[in-house]
Amino acid sequence: MSIDSLKQALPDYAKDLKLNLSSLAAEPSLTEQQRAGTFVAAAIASRNARVTAAILDDAGAKLSPEALTAAKAAAAIMAMNNIYYRFVHLASNEDYAKMPAKLRMNVIGKPGVEKADFELWSLAVSAVNGCGMCVDAHERELRKAGVGSEAIQAAVRIAAVVHAVATVFDAEESGGDVALAA
């Protein structure tokens, strides 16, 4: 399975997603590693087995074993951090922001790839998971590393389209038509 097979399997109502997948697969503002890793991390974050398998098959083949592991690690660590930090951000009790997280996050310090690439993948996952606090933190780190707005936006565009494709397949796999209970 590949990204092309995902595009072919999308229903007609998702034509825009097909077009967006095509253009983002060749997004020039990202390196091949950044682009492929963003696809992988976003697919895992989107939680659709079909999308994840296709993207791992396609984009995963463009990554070194270390980069593939790092993209998967970004999805894994952000799955935890996005929940925790979204809680800290949304809780009206400000005491939580002053408390240490007490969660292991060693991979962030030593991801096995360039720090900026890992931050880009973490940002994409944080966008999928809707954690504003994490989005701000990763965007700030990317800017410090000299990553431009166009590359940052491209990573989030990839995350948005991959998540939308996963949403379509989830709907189609559940019967496509959502009937209201009588």
Could you characterize the architecture of this molecule?
The chain is mostly helical. It has a single domain (3-173), classed as AhpD-like (Up-down Bundle). 71% of the residues lie in helices and 0% in strands. Helix 1 (3-9) packs antiparallel against helix 2 (15-24), helix 2 packs antiparallel against helix 10 (149-173) and helix 3 runs parallel beside helix 8 (115-129). The longest helix is centred in the middle third of the chain and has 26 residues, at 65-90. The termini are far apart.
Q: What is the CATH class name?
A: Mainly Alpha
In percent terms, what proportion of residues is strand?
Answer: under 5%
CATH topology: AhpD-like
Order of SSEs:
HHHHHHHHHH
Return the structural class: mainly alpha
Number of domains: 1
Low-confidence stretches: 178-182
Oligomer: single chain
Tell me the radius of gyration.
Answer: 17 Å
Principal-axis shape? globular
**CATH level-four homologous superfamily name:** AhpD-like
Distance between the termini: 39 Å
Report the strand count: 0
Described by strand count, sense and barrel closure, the largest sheet is: none
Helical residues, percent: over 70%
Under the CATH scheme, the architecture is Up-down Bundle
User: What is the count of DSSP helices, taking H or I runs of 4+ residues?
Assistant: 10
State mean pLDDT (0 to 100 scale).
Answer: 93
Helices and strands in order, then pairings?
Blueprint: H1 3-9, H2 15-24, H3 32-46, H4 49-58, H5 65-90, H6 95-98, H7 106-109, H8 115-129, H9 132-144, H10 149-173
Helix pairs in contact: 1-2, 2-10, 3-4, 3-5, 3-8, 3-10, 5-8, 8-9, 8-10
